[in-house]
Amino acid sequence: MNIVIEGSENIDSLPYVDDEITENERIYIQKLIDEEKATFSPPDYLSQLPQHVDIDYKSFNFLENDFKRMEENRKMDEFDINRYKVTSPTGANIKNEKIWNESLNNARSQLEHQDIRKINLELLQRYGANSWKLYLSDLELLQKILKKQLEQKKAEIEEVNIQRKIKQEDTIEKIRQHENKWLNLVYKNKEIELACQSVQREIDQLKIQKEKEEKE
What mean pLDDT value characterizes the chain? Predict the structure, then answer.
């Protein structure tokens, strides 16, 4: 699934440049981020993700029973292997035709099962090695493809980080130039302000001197 957030290419920070910020700056930055997020289309970009499925495990009886067993610290019931045993009727059932038929059918099932296992083992012995080699060959090919894709992605990420660093270092130089320019302008404005104040004092003194001369 490819999630595209409109305007996301303009969302960035300056991790190579930014210094530690104050609490007021953090609040102001968060305010800017919230204002930017309000312009996203769609506004709730997480809505593109699949909805979380909440499974009600209590609706599964076998799980509920197993959880109850664990709460009571009871061991799990052992696997019943009686169906795999081949036994003949004994005792009172020795003359029961129905029990004999069930025992005979079970013996036939077990024999058929063993025949199938034997066939599977023969097939595995004859073709298993080549099939396994082919499977391993496919896995090696898949591993090489994924490794190549991983290296490519790492290279792309590294290139992005390098370009970001270059742009940010170039940006910090511009920021410093503007800061120096701003400081120079502030300094010059202060000099002009002081000069104006000095001129104003001279004007005031001249006015006072003139008034004294006029009175004399």
Answer: 82
Which SS3 state, helix, strand or coil, does residue 54 take?
A: coil
Max alpha carbon distance in the chain (Å)?
A: 157
Contacts of 175 (CB under 8 A, 6+ apart): 17
Mention every residue, 6+ apart, whose C-beta is less than 8 A from residue 14.
168, 171, 172
74: left (phi over 0), alpha (psi -120 to 50) or beta: beta
Q: What are the tens digits of pLDDT across the range 126-175?
A: 888 888 888 999 999 999 999 999 999 999 988 988 888 888 888 888 88
Per residue in 29-42, is it b (16+ CB within 10 Å) or e — as a string?
Answer: eeeeeeeeeeeeee
**pLDDT value at residue 3:** 40
Verify cis geometry, omega within 30 degrees of 0, for the bond prior to 42. Answer: yes
DSSP 97-150: HHHHHHHHHHHHHHHHHHHHHHHHHHHIIIIIHHHHHHHHHHHHHHHHHHHHHH
Q: What are phi and psi of 103, to 5 degrees?
A: -65, -40
CB atoms within 10 A of CB 102: 13
Q: Could you tell me the pTM of the whole model?
A: 0.37
Contact 91, 85 (CB under 8 A): no
Please report where in the chains the tokens 């599964």 appear, as a residue. 60
